[in-house]
Amino acid sequence: MIKEKEQDIRHQDTVCVNESNLTQQWYHNLKYLAAGIIFGIIFVKAEVISWFRIQEMFRLQSFHMYRIIGSAVLVGMISVWMIKKFNIKTIYGEPITLTSKKFNKGQIYGGLIFGFGWAITGACPGPLFAQIGTGALAVSVTLLSAIAGTWVYGFFRDHLPH
């Protein structure tokens, strides 16, 4: 009984509660391609993808990346507050559901592994494609490692503390 309940809870984690039921033509995805290209250009211009900037951040030699991360957190907080306060819907009129997350110790372990990987490689998942796009092809190893890490997590997920 407990095992079934735990499996059901884990299954709910993987389901996107805001998944749209609308079907659209393939060309509707071009807007996401355009947004990704613009986002990548902004990353390059703001030096967010710079290995040297990331190393400066982890060595506490520069505040540049902390300002960028802090502004992203602030924008996220304001956005979530506005969605809740004004009951904002998607562009297609569908409701946005924000579910509460329960804290567990696995988040500490995962955060540490993520941070160590970020410090060692100089790349987090966000700017990986922008780094590869600028010609830093060595980052392809980091991309393949991220994919492999995701697969390993999925394989061992049922045996990990959640």
Question: Explain this structure to me?
Answer:
The model has no long low-confidence stretch (mean pLDDT 84). The protein is mainly alpha-helical and 162 residues long. The chain has helices spanning 2-14, 30-45, 51-58, 64-86, 106-121, 128-133, 139-156. It contains seven helices and no strands. The chain is globular.
What are the key terms here?
162 residues; mainly alpha; 62% helix
Write the layout of secondary structure elements.
Layout: H1 2-14, H2 30-45, H3 51-58, H4 64-86, H5 106-121, H6 128-133, H7 139-156
Number of helices: 7
* Helix-and-strand structural type: mainly alpha
Mean of residue pLDDT? 84
Measured distance between first and last alpha carbons: 17 Å
Poorly predicted ranges (pLDDT <50, ≥5 residues)?
A: none
Give the fraction of residues assigned to helices: 55-70%
Net shape = globular
* Secondary-structure element order, N to C: HHHHHHH
* Major sheet size, sense and barrel closure: none
Number of strands: 0
Using only CA atoms, what is the Rg? Answer: 19 Å
The portion of residues forming beta strands comes to: under 5%
